[in-house]
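Memo to structure team: turn this sequence into structure tokens by end of day. - J.P.
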Amino acid sequence: MEPQVLLSLSNVRKTYALKQGLFGKRLPLHALFDVSLHIREGEAVGLVGESGCGKSTLAKILLGLLDPSAGDVTISGHDLRQVSPAQRAQLVQPVFQDPYSSLNPRKTVSRIVGLPLDLAGVALAERERRVREILDHVGLPQHAANAYPSQMSGGQRQRVAIARALISRPRVLICDEPTSALDVSVQSQILNLLQDLRTELNLSYLIVSHDLSVIRHMADRVVVMYLGRVVEEADTEALFESAAHPYTQALLAAALPTFPGLGLPEIDARWDFPNPIDPPTGCPFHPRCSIAVERCSIERPDLATHGNRLCSCHLAGDG
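Reply from structure team:
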């Protein structure tokens, strides 16, 4: 039986009205344009793309921090607008990028981690038991409960942030760059912890990251966004072995080599990001694409099935 869909976006749009100057008229900025995304039970989905492509907006909509301008968002089959904040918090929780600023420096770890239970009215004895239990799950010693964030390393703080997200027993974690603020030596520990927790607690993840190595290590499926649209979606290994969209190919080519001495990568793309208020006609990537043809500047490609993936490129079937 196919796993249950826990989080779902269907044809979601998010438009901001930006004012140009003091007396200028408001212009629309389409942060998301007809985006569809589904996260199933036990699945880890990676979300990649340049800054400004709409990743953070999408994550905030899933967390209920932003309302979509159009489209449908469902959590466990229920319309997001009909789910109370308390119910939503029990289903989906965030793990923020920076553990140095996401934790209250004036509260102990026990108070930080147990705060969601306080808001839910859980009794003190049960609260303390669950705090001890979740600290053990994330690999922190019991005496850490009485420590303050300033007394902990970056990796320990991120473990506290993960514990806080898990204390209410959610089914989905939205991980926004979960290791980018950490030392390289600590990053692999946090990623392995997230992998272990996913197996132990049957969690689903949406992992937002610029680091393609993190996505390859963590995700079962990858969604690539460009200028507010999904341009490619495929299983992780299929995408990394043979990307179909020229933008995905350029992202992979721009990744730094794993081994020293190999030099910097050569990027076969024009890396001037377009104006999102005045996007290009046709395919939004065509001004930067090295293989674009005349049709690309006129006709916008649909996100369609090409073999084992979804891709929005007129030339996707031409190799």
